Amino acid sequence: MEMPIDHRWNALNDLDWEAFARAWLAELRGDPESPDSEMGQTVVMMNFTAAPEHQWKFIRCAVAASESDDDLNSIAAGPLEHLLGKHSENWIEAVEDQSARDPKFAKMIGGVWKSMMPDKVWDRVQKLQARDTGTSGPESG
């Protein structure tokens, strides 16, 4: 059963989304300056309860705030895989466009696994991965 959209995400402005993404990445890194929180759980809830437009904003903010390949892999294996698994038909074109414009985003695509994506969307993701790295990315997982 799919969870309903939680409209509380609508209250976040651009600065809130940026701070949310930075806090999540800091927690993932084990940053001692990161407040003891449950950002990881909040991101999982966002994946299931926020509108895809909000998930997309979070993904772009997280990529912009990323500082390492580990950060990019966390974004790829979490929020982006979820967005493409649940809303792939409506979002693959945006992913392709962002990948063409943003080298950091293009690099992040290399960490995406098939997960719940339909085959035709996964084929498009693999083309993005091949364009960025010269090889295909991870196998389905």
UniProtKB/TrEMBL annotation:
Q: What's one Pfam family the UniProt record gives for this protein?
A: DUF6869
**Limits of the DUF6869 domain:** 42-131
Q: Which InterPro entries match?
A: DUF6869
Name of this chain's protein: DUF6869 domain-containing protein
Q: Which organism is it from?
A: Halteria grandinella
High-level lineage: Eukaryota, Sar, Alveolata, Ciliophora, Intramacronucleata
